[in-house]
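// run 5 | inverse folding | seed 20
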């Protein structure tokens, strides 16, 4: 017995010391995760609101009424029962939905929520934590691309409001708190961390979501995500869930984006985004090798819109944009977000790589109109000159003729060498090149006959590179860069 006690006593003593140390730590030990979030939640809950909407829809209700055969014993009973209760299959009916929001200006009565929370609503009512209610006077503006809306109510007394904090300084692992109206249970508080940043969930061209494991469910949409200083650092917008409930993967629009959108909705009632006028694609491993740039960095320009700000500034297809307005372009999808947030009319520096040489050009940011294409990505999909129709790295190429233009539906403006057929086992086929495509450039040099292509391939091979970079145009006029292995 004595031996057992002597073994256990040091462990018990160590446990007691660790416990005492834990609870005697200074307050700063909990600065990133306090022992309780009750003080923070208590200050914020009154600024978070429940949003209920209603709208009238036409057509049959969700549950079909029973059909009784003519002359059946209970025909009169069913007719009387359902007619008295208004059970008409094609009658109009009102449906309602619930969401969340938060007050950003208590004196003016300004409330932020998701656009999808109020989409199609005829009436919008704001329910406050103290039980009071206010009708929304006006939707000041909405932005479908960022899924945000700004509402206006007339407060009888100043409302409790909250402020935006910076989302750019957040780090993965930082504590965050969500308050909202999940499943109609208003004032619900959940705690978690930032699980990831800059998430692209394919919901729009400017996806840049914060990911959190704080519980977010149906009804939390439009509600705030707070840091431990009580600042709004995101708007809870979406979840991934096979069950319909939280599995710890939720997404919030970062506050830096929200604040910018809200400011414009207040000023203009709409969002005015910057526009460059380029089609871009990712710098993949093989393209990076051909261009001599780090992989997965920058944005490769595949095409420039005529008369666009990019065209006027001298940007060209094949340029790799590394910085825009002194902000690093760390990925292809980062460029549209940076440009969209740039002030209209601002002269911004563009740092780029062109044929191995770094250049800095200045572009005046344009305004993205409804008729303009977003600065968006394109989906990835010693040698003698050979005679026309010869095969080069699995491609049978020919100079463009009127007959070939008609055959493949190619516009007269398209210049280059047409692909007549392709070896299905070749590297080019695996990269998505197909018959009817036109090679416009090879190794960033314009080509007009198969000999030009062969010479470029030979030049690249002698330089010791593993792939040749083609610029390819299809019958629809879409341009893209394709790096085709040659070894």
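// decoded
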């Amino acid at each position: 017995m004595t031996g057992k006690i002597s073994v256990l006593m040091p462990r018990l003593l160590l446990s007691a010391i660790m416990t005492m140390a834990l609870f005697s730590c200074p307050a700063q030990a909990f600065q990133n995760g306090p022992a309780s979030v009750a003080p923070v939640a208590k200050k914020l809950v009154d600024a978070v609101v429940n949003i209920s909407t209603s709208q009238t829809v036409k057509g049959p209700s969700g549950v079909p009424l029973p059909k009784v055969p003519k002359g059946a014993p209970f025909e009169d009973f069913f007719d009387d029962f359902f007619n008295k209760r208004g059970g008409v299959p094609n009658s109009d009916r009102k449906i309602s939905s619930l969401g969340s929001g938060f007050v950003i200006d208590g004196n003016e009565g300004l409330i932020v929520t998701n656009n999808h929370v109020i989409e199609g609503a005829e009436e919008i009512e704001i329910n406050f934590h103290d039980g009071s209610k206010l009708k929304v006077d006006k939707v000041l503006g909405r932005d479908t691309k960022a899924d945000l809306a700004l509402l206006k109510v007339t407060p009888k007394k100043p409302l409790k409001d909250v402020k935006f904090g910076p989302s750019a300084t957040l780090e993965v692992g930082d504590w965050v708190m969500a308050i909202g109206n999940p499943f109609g249970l208003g004032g619900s508080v959940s705690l978690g961390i930032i699980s990831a940043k800059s998430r692209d969930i394919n919901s729009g061209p400017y996806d840049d979501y914060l990911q959190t494991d704080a519980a977010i469910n149906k009804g939390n949409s439009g509600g705030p995500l707070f840091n431990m200083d009580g600042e709004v650092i995101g708007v809870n917008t979406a979840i991934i869930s096979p069950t319909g409930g939280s599995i710890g993967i939720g997404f919030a629009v970062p506050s830096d984006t929200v604040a910018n959108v809200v400011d414009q909705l207040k000023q203009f009632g709409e969002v005015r985004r910057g526009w460059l006028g380029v089609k871009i694609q990712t710098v993949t491993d093989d393209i990076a090798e051909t261009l001599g740039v780090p992989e997965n960095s920058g944005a490769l320009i595949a095409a420039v819109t005529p008369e666009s700000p990019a065209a006027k500034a001298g940007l060209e297809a094949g340029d790799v944009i590394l910085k825009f307005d002194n902000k690093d372009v760390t990925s292809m999808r980062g460029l549209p977000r940076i440009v969209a947030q740039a002030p209209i009319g601002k002269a911004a520096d563009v740092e780029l790589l062109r044929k191995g040489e770094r250049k800095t050009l200045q572009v005046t940011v344009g305004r993205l109109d409804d008729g303009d294409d977003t600065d968006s990505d394109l989906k990835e999909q010693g040698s003698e000159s050979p005679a026309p129709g010869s095969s080069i790295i699995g491609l049978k190429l020919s100079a463009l003729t009127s007959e070939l233009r008609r055959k493949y539906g190619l516009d007269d403006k398209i210049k280059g060498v047409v692909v007549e057929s392709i070896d299905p086992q070749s590297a080019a086929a695996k990269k998505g090149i197909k018959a009817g495509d036109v090679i416009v450039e090879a190794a960033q040099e314009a080509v007009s006959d198969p000999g030009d292509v062969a010479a470029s391939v030979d030049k690249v091979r002698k330089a010791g590179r593993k792939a040749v970079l083609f610029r390819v145009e299809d019958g629809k006029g879409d341009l893209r860069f394709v790096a085709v292995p040659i070894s």
